[in-house]
């Protein structure tokens, strides 16, 4: 299917944009920051509209959209709410068919003026057959904008932070979750396709966007931040269609007293009972959580599974560590989450015994206590477990960073030769790549963890290569359990 | 009480140490790495003992402890288990009274040889009135070693990473949790006093160490990683005595089938039913969790509370954000955890209205949507809420990093003058310091959060100044709830 047939494509891939509400004050005016970010990745024409300024951030400014030399595909409006109807009408007259209305002060004000303004913009949109995102939103990010050329992107958010490119798309009823979590996402290796802050969903809602994502070849996994669901029936039908192919992860904000009050002030929505939402999520195969951090881990995990087609066939987990503490904690978490950590067969235990010292144990969890030989620990051991047919997934915990180790040795006065340094580069090609391939072949994912942090070089190298690595031991069992459950659901819906 | 009266003080603050099992191979020998780390912070004499080498890592080596020019306070033994009895006997003869036995291969082997070796070292220790940590451990870290001089420390672990100095002490039945979590701890601002990997607890156990920590003026908060409790009655009596003054946070590894198997291989311990442990923790006022990440957050939170004597008097939480999404998610978490997010009085709402735009809400959660004035948002607003008497704690979420913002402006071609740059330094002294003081005065903690990450400068500045800041929105409500519950417990045990 050609995405151009979907009217939303003109919002994700406009040829030109007119911008209302930007000036040259980058410190205080949100619209100015949004124009700056739009400029940074856009390749078409941008037309700032301003009643007085002739030049905005190096671009020629126009007094009105009627003066523009062409009809822009998209209007981006960041103006006080009372002015919005006027400029929207002007856009309609000019023939602009798509808009993002960032301005707040509509339905969510819950007063007569807010409601009246809402009715007015609804009518204008109907009159000119316009479709718009918002109001009360931050707009969109599209990393695949101008899709064959990955150096460009479309970004209407105000914080400037460009995520890594991938196939995770987020549709969010909170601008913060759509835009400001990019710091976190990039740090932990989530690779983004699109992110949409939908605001009040006055014209385009989550269902419209889900319909687009369903067909979008640049979207593999969808994340939803939900405060309300506007079209329940359509939402259920559509997500049930999507989830066997493209996993959906949702975080629901409502369900408690003050949270519901918060939602009313936020988007004017009526949040519902958490049990109802949980019921909907279960029925539609949507993975859900209350934790913003788990939300990102689940998206990353399912994106990895989808990209490499790794869907574990059961719930038997092998755990390999060099530490009894992390082995114990991850084993406990796995069991509490419904996964199995089975005792390995005598035969497998004997094979493992070859690679581990006497102080270690090969029963599962495998705790080697310390490695006799790094290659055996990092390659032979997981390979043996992976090929045994006794596990459906592997959690592997250790310290990998021998770059750091070499540095410490040199600082301590020891000598490090060139061969040792080469080992660091060889680590990826020799150690991780063949394992990664084997994991794909057997559909047995290997999740790595360790005590170091994402900003360490070694972790960044893992993430760059799509090798799932985690800081410490909470997230790996949780993510594995989500992947196992999703894979089971996927099979039950007849996909392999 | 003088800590010197406790026999463990000679393990934390030895005057001299002899080391068995180190050589010059820093890449492969654990003992060598341990010696390197010991050297790095120690100020007394270190005597490597080696049958052949004359010089180890720049230190004169001796063939036997009997040849040493003095009697060392402490012996550090990293040798194969069969050799341990021999050198321990020699240490006894020389008059060495304290030891750390790192070597594994004793009780945890669960065979006759392991049990026999255990009996032998027990007898030697009895014969010479020696006390030792281990075997099967990594030993100790003491950041306050040579206490009046903070440039020194005692460290027998093998990974080299020195945490920031503070008053959190960890006693752990896992070496990894004692030593390798330092990366994480330092990154998120946990300031450490001591950390002890207790191993098999053959001679010195958790109860002995708790008794030391109880009196230790350099310990405010205690973290425990538990796989078994050896002396249940003493443990319960002692921790019940400690917790009203010094909070204890525990993470228990056992309680599920495979986790119990893991523990048996790890330290040879018999783990018990999780319910029994939970019962013990509740009875003794110990804060507990299954999450390693929460473990560190709770320690950090209680250390902050203890240092500044901030113990909230109730469970009413005020939430201040510039984002409806984070407001909603934190409000929901607070409520799910038993905290209250009460609607503010009309009077307080009117006061708040002065500082926020029309699109915002002052009901609680306060969502300002965007700030009209940064100073009003970051200082006046929380100050007003804090002084209202309507809350017992505050969660404050926003983007603070205007260092980053200025950088973005400059990159975008905007101009940043000197006054703007000064603002960054003024931020701490003008904005945060007075609020911090006010928080202490009213015993109303303010927890900050935002989308940025601990490795960003601004977060590091917060952490350096003991201002509790969090990445995203999971940990602040959880940590606040732990603090509120602990404060309630503390009052119920008659401390204020």
In short:
Two copies of one chain form a homodimer. The first copy, chain A, is of the alpha/beta class and 496 residues long. Chain A has helices at 9-12, 30-41, 84-94, 112-128, 175-179, 182-187, 206-215, 232-242, 257-267, 274-284, 292-308, 324-336, 346-353, 374-387, 402-411, 418-442, 457-464, 475-492, and strands at 16-20, 45-49, 55-56, 59-60, 74-77, 98-101, 131-133, 139-142, 154-155, 165-172, 192-197, 221-226, 248-252, 287-289, 317-321, 366-367, 393-397, 446-450, 469-471.
Q: Can you put this structure into words, describing what you see?
A:
The structure is a homodimer of 496-residue chains. Chain A has 496 residues and is an alpha/beta fold. Chain A has 2 domains: 301 residues, Succinyl-CoA synthetase domains (Rossmann fold, 3-Layer(aba) Sandwich); 184 residues, Succinyl-CoA synthetase domains (Rossmann fold, 3-Layer(aba) Sandwich), CATH 3.40.50.261. The first copy, chain A, has 18 helices and 19 strands. In chain A, the strands form 4 sheets. In chain A, strands 9-8-11-10-12-13-14 form a 7-stranded mixed β-sheet, with helices on both faces. Chain A has a 5-stranded parallel β-sheet with strand order 2-1-5-6-7, with helices on both faces. Chain A has a 5-stranded parallel β-sheet with strand order 16-15-17-18-19, with helices on both faces. The longest helix of chain A is centred in the last third of the chain and has 25 residues. At the A-B interface, helix 2, helix 5, helix 6, helix 9 and helix 11 of A face helix 2, helix 5, helix 6, helix 9 and helix 11 of B.
């Amino acid at each position: 299917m050609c995405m151009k047939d979907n009217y939303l494509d003109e919002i994700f891939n406009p040829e030109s944009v007119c911008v209302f509400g930007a000036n040259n004050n980058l410190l205080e005016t949100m619209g100015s920051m949004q124009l700056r970010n739009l400029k940074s990745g856009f390749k078409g024409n941008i037309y700032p509209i301003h009643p007085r300024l002739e030049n905005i951030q190096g671009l020629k400014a126009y007094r009105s959209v009627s003066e523009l030399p062409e009809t822009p595909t998209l209007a981006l409006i960041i103006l006080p709410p009372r002015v919005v109807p006027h400029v929207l009408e002007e856009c309609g007259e000019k023939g602009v068919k798509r808009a993002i209305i960032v301005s707040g002060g509509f339905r969510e004000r819950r007063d007569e003026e807010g409601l009246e303004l809402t009715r007015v913009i609804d009518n204008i949109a109907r009159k000119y057959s316009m479709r718009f995102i918002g109001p009360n939103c931050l707009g969109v990010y599209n990393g695949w904008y101008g899709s064959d050329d990955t150096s460009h992107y479309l970004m209407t958010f105000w914080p400037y932070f460009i995520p890594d490119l991938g196939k995770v798309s987020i549709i969010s009823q909170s601008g913060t979750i759509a835009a400001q979590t990019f710091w976190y996402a990039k740090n932990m290796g989530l690779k983004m396709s699109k992110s949409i802050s939908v605001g009040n969903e006055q014209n385009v809602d989550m269902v419209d966007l889900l319909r687009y994502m369903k067909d979008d070849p640049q979207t593999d996994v969808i994340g939803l931040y939900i405060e309300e669901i506007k079209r329940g029936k359509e939402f259920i039908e559509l997500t049930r269609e999507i989830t066997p192919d493209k996993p959906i992860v949702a975080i629901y904000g409502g369900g408690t007293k003050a949270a519901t009050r918060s939602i009313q002030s936020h988007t004017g929505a009526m949040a519902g009972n958490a049990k109802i939402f949980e019921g909907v999520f279960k029925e539609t195969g949507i993975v859900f959580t209350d934790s913003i951090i788990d939300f990102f881990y689940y998206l990353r995990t399912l994106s990895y599974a989808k990209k490499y087609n790794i869907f574990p066939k059961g719930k038997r987990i092998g755990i390999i560590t060099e530490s009894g503490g992390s082995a114990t904690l991850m084993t406990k978490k796995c069991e509490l989450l419904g996964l199995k950590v089975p005792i390995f067969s005598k035969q497998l235990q004997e094979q493992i015994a070859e690679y581990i010292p006497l102080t270690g144990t090969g029963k599962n969890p495998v705790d080697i206590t310390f490695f006799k030989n790094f290659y055996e620990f990092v390659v032979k051991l997981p390979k043996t477990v992976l090929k045994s047919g006794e596990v459906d997934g592997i959690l592997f915990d250790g310290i990998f960073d021998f770059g750091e180790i070499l540095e410490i040795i040199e600082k301590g006065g020891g000598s490090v030769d060139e061969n040792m340094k080469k080992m660091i580069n060889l680590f990826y090609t020799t150690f991780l790549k063949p394992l990664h391939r084997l994991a794909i072949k057997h559909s047995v994912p290997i999740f790595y963890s360790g005590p170091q942090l994402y900003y360490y070089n070694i972790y960044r190298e893992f993430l760059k290569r799509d090798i799932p690595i985690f800081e410490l031991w909470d997230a790996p069992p949780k993510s594995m359990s989500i992947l196992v459950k999703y894979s089971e659901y996927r099979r039950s819906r007849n996909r392999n």
